[in-house]
Write a structure and sequence with these properties.
five-stranded mixed sheet; nine-stranded mixed sheet; alpha+beta; 463 residues
């Protein structure tokens, strides 16, 4: 059993996690852009709680696989042009995503790692819509959306739907055809006798391309586990399988997001030059993997201070990948530990164009992250305050108390070898050879908002 911590201690720890590189962006107070209409500081413990509207949940039927219906007017409202909100929210998501990535990388030191800042941020924001005001205050602070001026006994709330729609609008900017797209799906399985708040239900739709909310009888855990896993596998086209385990009769709610980036390189690699080459996992371990090769002009940097090479690769018309390869003898962990400073913006400023013969291992990857475990790794008090034993979700359901038992984020990154064919023009000069043949870090950005869509590391491309 976890020991209850004073609110001020939890707030202090959350502030510590959000301190640091906020100076990297032009400052616009996020709260002013996302505040609810007619916002005022609301008492954390009102004498008479405001009632909230709930909706019945359809029972899980393995034969009924259609996603939840949604209002087309609300969907159209999500398709926004780049605004001040997208840039500011991208900055908040980037900062939190980097901190979560570092925690996840520590948990998976010798494994490949993949995290979507969007899935993590969006999951917490969706639960914000059902949180009590005390827990909502903690989530706002953790996400960087606090007003910063509220007294201890009240909170000024943001419009969670506006936040989620802005997240989704950034994702939609990347879509560039059938081979360059981001898709987000959300599944929620609640106790069969519970109704869920209308706000939460709408939030799952604001955040996703399709959503599924179903009721399930948890009294027979093994049967429930088989049913929910089968339903997810069928509705994901087989992409998401065997996610939930160790269910128990006291479960109230299971939550799953699937975030997939599928694309191709803006400039095609040359298939005839693909060959099997060695990848040095560590000083004593070498594996053989298919490597792609392309000679052309790239923006890159040899960072002698941080002992790494940085190269930028265009993906779709609105996204790119930044690959960071430690110099031989340098450690990937040392590079990752510097990502929360202004080192990334410094890299961008110093990139220069040059002729490279770039050799890169083929890789597509996926990951499954348990948000309870990730937050606990960051700090147990944070997990307890946001999703765990001290979190309260009185506005999520008509059932009291109501707990968030599992929050799982599935992330998939798939790249083909294809791209836009380039005319075979003889480049002037001798290309610099760069082989990404040892563990490396990468990030995928949406270019207009500078939002980080994915963060990852490859320790072994054959896994």
């Amino acid at each position: 059993m976890k020991i209850q911590q004073p609110l001020h201690l939890a707030l202090f720890l959350l502030c510590c996690f959000l301190s640091g590189s906020t100076a990297n962006r032009v400052y616009v107070h996020p709260f002013s852009l996302f505040a609810a209409e007619n916002v005022s500081c609301e008492t954390l413990h009102p004498l008479i709680p405001k009632p909230h509207r709930t909706l019945p949940v359809a029972p899980l039927d393995i034969e009924v696989l259609m996603p939840d219906s949604r209002d087309p007017l609300r969907v159209d409202a999500q398709k926004q042009n780049i605004t001040e909100r997208t840039a500011v929210l991208a900055g908040l998501s980037n900062l939190l995503g980097l901190r979560m990535y570092l925690a996840l990388s520590r948990m998976q030191q010798s494994n490949n790692t993949l995290l979507s800042p969007f899935s993590s941020f969006g999951s917490l924001m969706t639960f914000y819509l059902g949180a009590s005001k005390t827990t909502a205050r903690m989530i706002q602070l953790f996400l960087g959306l606090s007003s910063g001026t509220d007294p201890e006994d009240c909170v000024s709330l943001v419009d969670g739907h506006k936040v989620l729609k802005t997240l989704q609008s950034i994702n939609s900017l990347v879509d560039d055809g059938p081979k360059d797209e981001i898709t987000t799906h959300v599944w929620t399985f609640s106790r069969q006798d519970a109704e869920l708040s209308e706000d939460f239900v709408q939030g799952t739709q604001d955040f996703s391309d399709s959503s599924f909310i179903r009721g399930i009888d948890f009294s027979k855990p093994q049967e429930a586990e088989q049913a929910v896993n089968s339903f997810v596998e069928k509705t994901s086209g087989g992409k998401v399988a065997s996610i939930f385990n160790n269910l128990n009769p006291s479960n109230d709610l299971l939550f799953l997001t699937s975030f997939k980036f599928q694309g191709n390189w803006r400039t095609a690699f040359q298939p005839e030059r693909t060959s099997m080459q060695e990848f040095h996992v560590d000083e004593t371990t070498t594996v053989t993997a298919p490597f792609m090769t392309h000679t052309g002009r790239y923006h890159y940097l040899n960072d002698k201070v941080n002992r790494c090479t940085v190269v930028k690769l265009s993906l779709s018309r609105r996204s790119h990948m930044l690959i960071v390869l430690p110099h031989e003898g340098s450690n990937l962990h040392n590079i990752e530990s510097k990502l929360l400073t202004d080192v990334m913006s410094d890299w961008y400023e110093r990139l220069h164009e040059g002729l490279l013969e770039l050799t890169l291992p083929k890789f597509s990857m996926s990951s499954v992250t348990d948000m309870h475990d990730l937050l606990t790794n960051m700090d147990p008090i944070i997990e307890s305050s946001l999703l765990g034993s001290q979190a309260e979700f009185s506005r999520l359901s008509n059932s009291k108390p109501f707990t968030i038992d599992k929050v799982i984020n599935k992330v998939m990154f798939e790249m083909s070898e294809d791209g836009e064919p380039q005319d075979r023009i003889q480049e002037e000069g001798i290309p610099l050879g760069l082989s990404i043949n040892r563990p490396f870090f990468f990030s995928v950005f949406e270019e207009n908002s500078n939002a980080i869509l994915m963060l990852g590391k490859i320790n072994n491309p054959t896994l």
